[in-house]
Amino acid sequence: MLPVSQIISHTPTWVFVVFFALLTLGFMQSKQRKVRVKTIFILPLAMVLFSLFGVYSVFGLSLVTLALWVLGLVLALMLGLKLAYPKVVSYSLKNNKLTIPGSWTPLALMMAIFFTKYFMGFAVARSLPIINDMVFIALICMLYGVFSGTFLARCLVMFKASKSSE
Length: 166
Prior knowledge:
three-stranded antiparallel β-sheet, globular
């Protein structure tokens, strides 16, 4: 087993840049903010692409991996829409902006995607046998999909708030 310091020292610099960018973005999400309706789609789409790239970079985009990712996405999307989180989103028609309450959820999701991707990079670099286990592949693909579906559900709940106020 490699010590953590050795794992970190072999991590490319760009990974730390992504990590701190996600931390900053997640911290910004923890504060109440006013945003244009169009901008609520940016973060979810970026996280969908980041998670899909996570599947592709390790397992490739086969019918099985893509289906598992989509299954996770759809399940999380359905649950997220049912729970309708965030609950307190208001829309101002006058300036076409949503007021979104602060939440640590986006940061937690971004870190979950990041560390899943980091672990998978480590597993591939070390040629860990687990990356060839079908149950593990299914779990990771669905997990990436769940992260994406959760982001999309939050986005759609906020978008719906903007439409119901018109």
